[in-house]
Specification:
The protein is α+β, with helices and mostly antiparallel strands and 256 residues long. It has a domain of 128 residues: PX Domain (2-Layer Sandwich). Helices cover 39% and strands 14% of the residues. It contains nine helices and four strands; from the N terminus they run βββααααβααααα. The protein has a four-stranded antiparallel sheet. A hairpin with a 6-residue loop joins strand 2 and strand 3. Belongs to the sorting nexin family. One of its GO terms (molecular function) is phosphatidylinositol binding.
C-alpha cells in the first residue's frame, strides 16, 4: 500500500500570553502552526492552554525518548525547576515561557520527538483552525440586525489564597478529553509524517535490520554500522548491569 509523504508540513511553535487561571496558577497559550510545504498559504493552527506542570511532564517524556536515540549532535534543552516561592514573579513566568517554547522548537527537526505520542497527547483537546479563513470570515459577516450591546467589564480571575498556592506545582494535569472529530483532525496533522494506509495484510513480525536503521540517526537505511551495533549492545549491557545492581541493593534493604 502507498504511504503518505513524510513531513508534509513545516511546524512552528510559540508559547505566549501568560495569564492567571481562576484556580490561581499561571497558564500559557501554546500555538502549533502547520504550514504546508506544497502551498505555504495553507496554514493550520492548533491552540491549547497549558500550565507549568504540563510542560514539565512533556519535558521529562521527551528527554527520555531523546536519550534513547543516542543523539550526541545536540544537547537536550534544560527546563526551569519547580519552585514554591516567587513563581508568580514576571521574571519567573518569562523564564518558564521561554523554556517551554525552546523545548517545543527543539523537537521540530527530530522526527522521533516531533511525531511522538507524548507531543500529540500534549495538544489533545485543541481544535484545528485555519487563521486565513477566520480573517476572511471577519470581513464578510453582515451587519447585526439589532444594536450590539456594550461590552461587559472584563472579569479578572483572582489568585487563590496564599495557603492554597503552595499546591500549584504539585497538581497533576487533568485527563485528556475523549476523541472527537476535531481531535481526529488534530491526530491526522501529528501523524502526517508517520501513518500508513490501512492494509488487509496480516500483522508483520519483528523489524528487519534495515528498518531498525531508520531509527538510528547515525546510520543509513540498509547499511547499519557493525561497530555502532556493538557499541549499542555494550551500552545496553552496562544499563542492564546497573539495573541489576540497583535491584539487588533495593532487595537487600527490604525487611526479611
Amino acid at each position: 500500500m502507498s504511504r503518505q509523504a513524510k513531513d508534509d508540513f513545516l511546524r512552528h511553535y510559540t508559547v505566549s500570553d501568560p495569564r492567571t487561571h481562576p484556580k490561581g496558577y499561571t497558564e500559557y497559550k501554546v500555538t502549533a502552526q502547520f504550514i504546508s510545504k506544497k502551498d505555504p498559504e495553507d496554514v493550520k493552527e492548533v491552540v491549547v492552554w497549558k500550565r507549568y506542570s504540563d510542560f514539565r511532564k512533556l519535558h521529562g517524556d521527551l528527554a527520555y525518548t531523546h536519550r534513547n536515540l543516542f543523539r550526541r549532535l545536540e544537547e537536550f534543552p534544560a527546563f526551569p525547576r519547580a519552585q514554591v516561592f516567587g513563581r508568580f514573579e514576571a521574571s519567573v513566568i518569562e523564564e518558564r515561557r521561554k523554556g517551554a517554547e525552546d523545548l517545543l522548537r527543539f523537537t521540530v527537526h527530530i522526527p522521533a520527538l516531533n511525531n511522538s505520542p507524548q507531543l500529540q497527547a500534549f495538544f489533545r483537546g485543541g481544535e484545528v483552525t485555519r487563521p486565513s479563513d477566520m480573517c476572511r470570515d471577519l470581513h464578510i459577516l453582515p451587519p447585526p440586525l439589532i444594536p450590539t450591546p456594550p461590552p461587559e467589564e472584563p472579569w479578572l480571575p483572582q489568585p487563590l489564597p496564599t495557603e492554597r498556592r503552595g499546591l500549584e506545582e504539585l497538581e497533576v494535569p487533568v485527563d485528556p478529553p475523549p476523541s472527537s472529530p476535531a481531535q481526529e483532525a488534530l491526530d491526522l496533522l501529528f501523524n502526517c509524517g508517520s501513518i500508513e494506509e490501512a492494509s488487509s495484510s496480516p500483522a508483520r513480525g519483528p523489524l528487519t535490520e534495515a528498518e531498525l536503521a531508520l531509527f538510528d540517526p547515525f546510520s543509513r537505511e540498509g547499511d547499519p554500522s557493525p561497530a555502532r551495533r556493538e557499541g549499542v549492545k555494550k551500552k545496553a549491557a552496562e544499563y542492564l548491569k546497573r539495573a541489576e545492581e540497583i535491584l539487588h541493593k533495593h532487595l537487600s534493604q527490604l525487611p526479611s
